[in-house]
Write a structure and sequence with these properties.
Layout (H helix, E strand, L loop, with lengths): L7 E6 L4 E8 L3 E9 L5 H5 L7 E5 L3 E2 L18 E3 L2 E2 L12 H7 L3 E4 L3 H11 L2 E7 L7 H9 L10 H4 L5 E3 L7 E6 L5 H9 L2 E6 L5 H5 L5 E4 L10 H12 L4 E4 L1 H9 L3 E18 L4 E14 L6 E2 L6 E8 L5 E6 L4 E4 L14 H20 L1
Parallel strand pairs: 3-4, 4-6, 5-7, 6-8, 11-12, 11-13, 13-14, 14-20
Antiparallel strand pairs: 1-2, 1-9, 2-8, 3-9, 10-12, 15-16, 15-18, 17-18, 18-19, 19-20
Helix pairs in contact: 8-9
């Protein structure tokens, strides 16, 4: 597929804004929440991140596709974005690792995209108006009346209230053996897990059992896990009550727990805290976060549209009776809760991606912190046996 199609396409936002451009990837209609991602690299990891399911992703970096797509870097089994918006698609592929062009990958996976639009203008509009539903129309759909295109957009579901875990989770258990010194079995609830996360956990000595999102507490405990992990994923945490109840059962067993991104929001809700939708979310690989425990500022990779509502200063009691909890990490751009740590039970979480396959790697130490917490818990159990 030629990246420089002259076939017309249009991006339509729910407030009636229209941005004409050119067809890119598959042709047709796609609908979803329009979000912007600020990473200048790592578009393959972004596209294959299941957390982007249901979202039309706009890249703020103007030139996309120059390194093509390869078979080594995908974070999951397919491209998950609902649609793709770029300004200047690369004219050629210029990387020795590339297997095909980005445009070819988008077309094969049926991802409707648009190029040649002013992505800076769309980004500024979303930052002012907040997250908006949108649609990309190309092929025969570009000739639909503007009123009909807008009707389709406004009838699309809002992201708030959506439970998308079943659409991205594995159907059966998948096991990755430990590559480091073995600690034991780790139960990973797949809410949209990325391959880099699995690899990092296996490197810390876990036999990683990736479980379907509808796993029961009995099935989880039958694995005799040394710890439990909740992954990133798409959707509204308020619509995932079954995952929250499962996590409360895990915490009641005092199993060590680590959650990232969606897993952070679900830990918050399991502890009895609320969550809320951010105006336009955090998506990119350049978000500054303060680790309150060390005083260190990390540059981190984010992809979330919801956040936990919790007091930022000092410990507070879990409304669900799990003892004192504290906010462990804070986003320095807007003071959003970026991490939680329980003080009486072995559980913590962060709102960002410590695996960060496209970088940065400032937060990779969190996998070591998790391994150390699990090892300490096992030592205590052995000494009490």
């Amino acid at each position: 597929m030629n990246s420089f199609s002259t076939e017309p396409a249009v991006l339509v936002l729910e407030d009636g804004s229209r941005f004409p451009g050119y067809a890119y990837g598959a042709r047709g209609v796609t609908l979803g929440e329009v979000v912007f991602a600020t990473g200048m690299t790592g578009y393959q990891e972004t596209l294959t991140d299941p957390s982007y399911a249901g979202q039309i992703v706009l890249q703020t970096a103007p030139h996309i596709g120059n390194t093509g797509m390869n078979a080594e870097d995908p974070e999951s089994r397919r491209i998950w974005v609902a649609g793709y918006v770029v300004r200047d698609p690369s004219r050629i592929v210029s990387n020795w690792r590339a297997d095909e062009s980005l445009a070819t990958s988008l077309e094969r996976d049926g991802i409707v995209g648009i190029s040649g639009i002013d992505t800076r203008a769309v980004t500024r509009h979303i930052r002012s108006a907040g997250s908006l539903r949108g649609g990309v129309f190309s092929g025969a759909a570009v000739d639909l009346a503007a009123e009909e295109q807008l009707r389709l957009v406004t009838e699309a579901p809002q992201m708030a209230g959506q439970n998308l875990s079943a659409s991205v989770s594995v159907a059966a258990v998948e096991v990755t053996p430990a590559t480091g010194e073995r600690l034991g079995t780790l139960a990973v609830l797949d809410l949209g897990v990325k391959q880099a996360t699995v690899d990092n956990l296996a490197a810390r000595g876990f036999d990683v059992h990736v479980l379907p999102q509808d796993t029961t507490i009995d099935a989880l405990l039958a694995l005799d896990p040394v710890a439990v992990f909740y992954s990133n994923g798409p959707g509204d945490p308020a619509a995932s009550e079954a995952h929250v109840e499962l996590l409360r059962a895990v915490l009641a067993e005092k199993l060590p727990f680590f959650g990232i991104c969606f897993g952070n929001q679900l830990l918050g809700r399991a502890l009895g805290l609320g969550t809320y939708k951010l105006p336009f979310g955090h998506r990119g690989i350049n978000q500054p976060v303060l680790d309150k425990q060390t005083g260190r500022v990390e540059i981190t990779a984010h992809n979330h549209g919801f956040a936990v509502d919790a007091p930022l200063d000092g410990p507070f009691e879990s409304p669900q009776g799990f003892g004192p909890v504290e906010v462990s990490h804070i986003g320095l751009n807007d003071n959003v809760v970026e991490g939680l740590r329980a003080l009486d039970i072995p559980a913590f979480s962060v709102q960002y991606h410590p695996e960060a396959a496209a970088g940065p790697h400032d937060a990779n130490y969190l996998f070591d912190r998790f391994r150390d917490m699990v090892a300490s818990n096992l030592s205590k159990k052995d000494s009490n046996a």
